[in-house]
Amino acid sequence: MTAKSAAAAARATVYGYPRQGQSRELKKAIEGYWKGRVDADALRVTATELRAANWRQLAEAGIHEVPTGDFSYYDHVLDTSVMVGAIPERHRAAVEADALDGYFAMARGTQDAAPLEMTKWFDTNYHYLVPELGPDTVFTAGSTKQVTELKESLALGLSARPVLVGPVTYLLLAKPAPGVAADFDPLTLLDRLLPVYAQVLTDLRTAGAEWVQLDEPALVQDRTPAELNAAARAYRDLGGLTERPKLLVASYFDRLGDALPVLAKAPVEGLALDFTEAAAANLDALAAVGGLPGRRLVAGVVNGRNIWVNDLEKSLATLGTLLGLADRVDVAASCSLLHVPLDTTAERDIEPQILRWLAFARQKTAEIVTLAKGLGGGTDTIAAELAANRADLASRAGSALTHDPAVRARTAAVTATDARRSQPYPERAAAQRAHLRLPLLPTTTIGSFPQTAELRTARADLRAGRIDSAGYEERIRAEIGEVISFQEKTGLDVLVHGEAERNDMVQYFAEQLTGYLATQHGWVQSYGTRYVRPPILAGDISRPEAMTVRWTTYAQSLTTKPVKGMLTGPVTMLAWSFVRDDQPLADTARQVALALRDEVNDLETAGTSVIQVDEPALRETLPLRACDHPEYLAWATEAFRLTTAGVRPDTQIHTHMCYAEFGDIVQAIDDLDADVISLEAARSHMQVARELAGHGYPREAGPGVYDIHSPRVPGVNEAAALLRKGLEAIPAERLWVNPDCGLKTRAWPETRASLENLVTAARTVRTELSAS
To answer: What is the pLDDT of residue 27?
Structure first.
């Protein structure tokens, strides 16, 4: 096909779409099911209606081929585990008794069975459920979900493409099951897994699928020759099937690198590549292999992870370069639109002109359709859209919101000394122990306590004018009083105020900093039914006034025990926001760090002796390629130290991280120079404690002994056993006892019971240590 005919054949598609619905109908239905207010049939009806509504919206917008199979009750990787029959033994009876309840048991756990481990999906803030595999794993095909959703879309008269997690990525995301040797490599199960994928592909072809998309984002990471050979073998075997749909292998989030020649040689009909995160690298690599003659290229030229309007002329130039490199060039977002909110038109509190700078899922869909039209019919067919786009881009570039000379001058004046504590850690530790006088194995929580319905109602009433600020603040004071009282009665050693006044750990601060925009309806799935509204980092950042001092000081006035000041760190403020794309992330991080530094110093001046600056996203934001790690970790750790280095030696700086693979960044954790770090460890059975010990981490640490992402209450013996495992790696004088993460999403009854058990477990182990 000539370049001209390839352009004329250009079509618009997406890899996936937000699942929740305009008013988070899916979240409400699932949580209603968990609480017994919604039955299984009603939940299925809601899900079916949401899928159909999504497909209709896409088709009406001009999307030629809609995705199926990307919709999930909880997580698409968990769906894949169900599809291939990889059910942990501890959950098998529950799944056999009731498939839906068993599915949720794997995700959330039960009182008798722990859930699957949860961690971040590559470098996003989406969490997936980690498959548990071992040498005895037996895979069995179960394509009911995938076939059912395909048939639903076809019944609407739509052209549909099922989307599956590819077999290589699935195995590379997996971990050895409990009881399996830690060095077991799940990729050794590939030959056992491929026949199951072959059966699913056959089932989908029989159901009417012309194309099936197999997502292999793991191939954009550094891969060994053995892993690349596994990918070659996988697609040689799947491509060699006789009764199958056409195969589109998709990668995203970065450059495909050494895997591109492997996939280019595979007997598959198409590749999908990211031309936003790694446009130049993927273009060069594609040209180097001679393109994809006779095959389909899906070009991800609209950023599926950020919310800024696309530069249509730039994207058209990229698409034009791709013509001639493939038989057919289609237009798409760079990845699933799962990672962005649904629709900007729901926003009423953002100025109309600024709103035109933004593109959520529906607006990105329109951009994709416009680009496909322009590629196929020429720029004259989209002249009005191009003119409007140029005006929007110019408006943003020239806005006073994006440039504050005072902020830029302060940032430019930062020196290396500003990011160093005044004394080395051993001297600080001695001063802190003398000042705080904490017991061995001190107990604490991560920060937040349950956000009750009463608190959410109070915030809604304040926004709606049903109560005034005085009434709202009285409610917050009462909640803080209850939280402090509970912690004292339970026997916790370092307390928190519970964060009753905070809607979200990033949004709360973003709403008080200049340069940020907040949305009212910009919900994005983080995990399961947990949705967040990432703020938008639109301009230069500064802090007009103190943000947390008043409530922390009030909490401290209610107790003689130390109350932690609680802040969100600069890297996490970036990672859980939609960031600027018009300046380096390092520059933005330094601006945020200086604003937070002012808050840290004000907390100390107000008498706060323990200040926690959470950085759960430090690992999450790590680039996917190792060659890009040093630059990122240098500015990320500097930003944390710039935030915290201005305090006295006897002020104890904590940080917190959760739900990521920390072994890759232990040196960076050390480089933060925090006095205490708390980390998720319960689901991974203290793996991080062993990793810290292996590194020789010299400071204090609190690997979690209570998994807060499950409603189950860990018993005293269970918490004590985890604590003893932690002591095998970390000396008692440097070990803290805490949950994995904040308690915001938990209910009060399970929180009370779990923390009481945690404190009892700490006391039990203290007694054992004193007797030994």
So the answer is: 97
Residue 265, amino acid: K
Q: What is the pLDDT of residue 278?
A: 83
Q: Are the beta carbons of 347 and 518 closer than 8 angstroms?
A: no
pLDDT value, residue 277: 79
Beta 514-517 vs 536-542: how paired, if at all? antiparallel
Taking the C-alpha atoms of residue 758 and residue 752, their distance in angstroms, rounded to an integer, is 10
* CA-closest candidate to residue 11, choices 55, 65, 70: 65
Using DSSP, state whether 702 is helix, strand or coil: strand
Task: Just list the catalytic residues.
Answer: 709
Task: Identify the residue whose tokens are 């802090």.
Answer: 543
Q: Which parts of the chain register pLDDT below 70?
A: 1-8, 659-660
556: left (phi over 0), alpha (psi -120 to 50) or beta: alpha
From 242, 323, 256, select the one nearest 5 (Cα to Cα): 323
**Among the listed residues 361, 366, 399, the one whose alpha carbon sits nearest the alpha carbon of residue 385:** 366
Q: How many CB atoms lie within 10 A of CB 695?
A: 13
Pick the closest to residue 494 from 566, 429, 425 (CA basis): 566
130 backbone dihedrals φ, ψ, rounded to 5°: -75, 125
Q: Please, what sign has the CA dihedral across residues 28, 30, 35, 41?
A: positive
> For position 2, what pLDDT does the model report?
59
Residue tagged 């401290």 (tokens): 556
In the sheet that holds 246-250, the strands lie side by side as: 66-68, 160-165, 211-215, 246-250, 270-274, 292-302, 326-333
User: Does residue 517 come out as left (phi exceeding 0), alpha (psi in the -120 to 50 range) or beta?
Assistant: beta
Transcribe 59-107 into DSSP letters: HHHT-SBEEES---SS-HHHHHHHHTT---HHHHHHHHH-HHHHHHHHH
Indicate the SS3 state at residue 275. Answer: coil
| Residues whose CB is less than 8 angstroms from the CB of residue 389 and which lie 6 or more positions away in sequence, other chains included | 309, 310, 311, 312, 313
Spell 164-177 as b/e; 16+ CB within 10 A means b.
Answer: bbbbbbbbbbbbbb
Measured N-to-C along each axis, helices 144-155 and 190-207 cross at an angle, to the nearest 10 degrees, of 30
As a whole number of angstroms, the distance between CA 767 and CA 772 comes to 9
Length of the chain: 772
Q: How far is CA 129 from the centre of its chain?
A: 12
Q: Kindly state the helix (H) or strand (E) to which residue 593 belongs, with its residue range.
A: helix 585-605
CA distance 207 to 466: 54
Q: In sequence order, which ranges of 161-311 are alpha helices (DSSP H)?
A: 167-173, 190-207, 225-239, 259-265, 279-288
The per-residue pLDDT for 683 is 80
The per-residue DSSP string of 704-732 comes to -SS-TTSSPPPPHHHHHHHHHHHHTTS-G
Secondary structure of residue 16 in the 3-state scheme? coil
What is the spatial distance between Cα 342 and Cα 344, in angstroms, rounded to a whole number?
A: 7
Q: What is the pTM of this model?
A: 0.90
Task: Kindly state the DSSP code that residue 177 receives in the 8-state scheme.
Answer: P
| DSSP secondary structure code for residue 38 in this structure | S
CA proximity to 86, closest of 128, 133, 130? 133
